[in-house]
Amino acid sequence: MKYPFSGRMYSAPESFLGRLFAVSNNPEIISFAGGLPDSSLLDVEGIKDASSYVMEEEGREALQYTTTTGYLPLREYIAERYNKRLGIPASADDIRIVNGSQQCLDLTAKIFLDSGDAVGIENPGYLGAIEAFSMYQPVFKCVDMDDNGVLSDVFKTLFEKEKPKFFYGIPNFQNPSGRSYSDERRKEIAEIIRETDGIFYEDDAFGELSFDNKPRMPVKKYAPENTIMSGSFSKIIAPGMRIGWIYAPKEVISQFDCAKQAADLHSNFLCQKIMHRYLTSVDLDSHIRKITAAYSKKCRLMCSLCDEHLPESIVRTDPKGGMFMLLTLPKKINSLKLFEEGLKRKVAVLPGIPFYANGGGEDTVRLNFSSSTEDEIISGMKRLKDTVASFRL
Ligand SMILES: Cc1ncc(COP(=O)(O)O)c(C=O)c1O
């Protein structure tokens, strides 16, 4: 049977995930290739208490249909946290709850992109965004990064000459590189989008996973009307609950509501209520401090083992938060070959290739440091050292 799938299904990039799942299911392999939060840091007891409370006190309401916009007290909580944490005057009206911030990527692409439209993205950029946008058959315009973020002169030329519908970026602890934009770069980006009437999609999935106490202002603060921001509870509370949000200008929110209603009517109401109960009954800041202390320690361990075990010709990024770092390889090592050779020695790294929307990445690999234990990081890095040694540089 030849099924008549739509053209968009053929524009999605080839999926690496099947291969990766096979790797993560093999307990003998130490995997730095995935991207999961550390399961031991999930607050099972806290979520259990919040769930019992919601079912006992508000069960009939929580199991009903609700509005597309999302649970108002949860939206108020998110707005208030923006006010307190970053001094941004958000209000619940500017915020909508979604099924994980991944859904914002799909719905934002749906409301902005027609086939053939230009969309900007960091190079390398988040694979999940490349996959979500690809469904709408855009033309990707990739902008390289340095250690201070996306290159602002190239970004400016892009907005002046090619007018992408929007540019997607991750200023805090980027996936896959772990890099963050400097404050100066954020201001430059904000100025460019204000001057060119451009739109910046600011994905802040990792914003709260900071290892230093340095305040990092979102681009949204400097260009509120030109920025669509998304956030998520996945990295700080529980990805399985699938609760994220969009924070955007009113005209965008109104179109977003249309698209969201058509897609799924509303996000899981029970989980929204449980999340709200949880957030208002625990000390969220101390929970986040516990997670960031653990990730920061693992990150420092992985960085020092990279420096100790790998040759100088392999250059790593220096994450100040988040869950990932990126290695740039010398010419003699191809990232796919490193992946294959690593599997033989029971360590998995993720070739950078799927993060480059227009090709490339044969010279980069992403390493995840959040999900492995410290012992696994120590053993896995030794295996990576042996793998690299086999290339005889
Ligand atoms: C940069 C980035 N954005 C968005 C997401 C999607 O997360 P969620 O849908 O769980 O909020 C991820 C997941 O890893 C991510 O890395």
Largest β sheet strand count, sense and barrel closure: 8 strands, mixed
SS-based structural class? Answer: alpha/beta
Order of helices and strands: HEHHEHEHEEHEHEHEEHHHEEHEEEH
Q: What is bound: which ligands?
A: pyridoxal-5'-phosphate
Name the CATH architecture of the largest domain. 3-Layer(aba) Sandwich
The CATH superfamily of the largest domain turns out to be: Type I PLP-dependent aspartate aminotransferase-like (Major domain)
Number of strands: 14
Helix content: 40-55%
Index terms:
393 residues, alpha/beta, Aspartate Aminotransferase, domain 1, Aspartate Aminotransferase, domain 2, 2 domains, eight-stranded mixed beta sheet, four-stranded antiparallel beta sheet, 13 helices, 15% strand, binds pyridoxal-5'-phosphate
Write up this protein.
The chain is an alpha/beta fold and 393 residues long. It has two domains: 7-43 and 286-389, Aspartate Aminotransferase, domain 1 (Alpha-Beta Complex); 65-281, Type I PLP-dependent aspartate aminotransferase-like (Major domain) (Aspartate Aminotransferase, domain 2, 3-Layer(aba) Sandwich), CATH 3.40.640.10. 44% of the residues lie in helices and 15% in strands. The chain has helices spanning 17-24, 44-62, 72-86, 101-112, 127-134, 152-162, 183-196, 219-222, 250-264, 269-281, 284-309, 335-344, 374-389; strands spanning 30-31, 95-99, 118-123, 139-146, 149-150, 167-169, 200-203, 227-232, 243-247, 315-316, 324-328, 347-348, 350-351, 364-368. The strands form three sheets. An eight-stranded mixed beta sheet has the order 2-9-8-7-6-3-4-5, with helices on both faces. Strands 10-11-14-13 form a four-stranded antiparallel beta sheet, covered by helices on one side. Helix 6 (152-162) runs parallel beside helix 7 and helix 11 (284-309) packs parallel to helix 13. It starts with 16 loop residues before the first helix and ends with a helix. The mean pLDDT is 96. The structure holds pyridoxal-5'-phosphate. The site of pyridoxal-5'-phosphate has 14 residues, from helix 4.
